[in-house]
């Protein structure tokens, strides 16, 4: 393990991310950040690292009951609301994503979809959003029997 006590650290944009004296990065918002680590008592010995902080992804679960899909996910503190998307399989390909619900409150973490057809395969994803940013969930596939 690297001994970070021999380094000084600097964040170029403290609105996006800060860095502690021990080198731990604290992400404040989504976006790009740049961090510089300099070896103490050594001239010209530094490393600059850039990275990207992405919006968190809600973990989703889809269950099927009587031709209805129930999409649930864990609430994200950073989210203002969620978009629920669905697409249908057409042979080996899928249709374009269709927004089936805009959930404007972060208190709702469930969506029931009853507009499904027997024998069809669907995929769902949930996109969390706040005022400035969006993220997306993993995609879950279901088959209506």
Automatic annotation (TrEMBL):
Pfam families: Big_2 (PF02368). Residues 55-145 form the Fibronectin type-III domain. SUPFAM superfamilies: Fibronectin type III, Invasin/intimin cell-adhesion fragments. This is Protein containing Bacterial Ig-like, group 2 domain protein. It comes from human gut metagenome. PROSITE patterns: FN3. InterPro entries: Big_2, FN3_dom, FN3_sf, Ig-like_fold, Invasin/intimin_cell_adhesion.
């Amino acid at each position: 393990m690297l001994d970070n006590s021999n380094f000084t650290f600097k964040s170029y944009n403290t609105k996006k991310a800060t860095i502690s004296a021990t080198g731990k990065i604290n992400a404040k918002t989504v976006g790009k950040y740049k961090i510089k680590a300099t070896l103490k008592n050594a001239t010209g010995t530094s490393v600059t690292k850039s990275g990207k902080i992405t919006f968190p992804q809600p973990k989703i679960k889809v269950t099927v009951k009587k031709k209805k899909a129930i999409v649930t996910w864990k609430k994200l503190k950073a989210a203002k609301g969620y978009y629920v998307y669905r697409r249908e399989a057409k042979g080996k390909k899928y249709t374009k994503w269709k927004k089936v619900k805009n959930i404007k409150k972060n208190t709702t973490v469930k969506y029931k979809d009853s507009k499904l057809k027997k024998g069809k395969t669907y995929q769902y994803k949930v996109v969390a959003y706040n005022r400035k940013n969006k993220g997306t969930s993993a995609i879950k596939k279901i088959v209506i029997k």
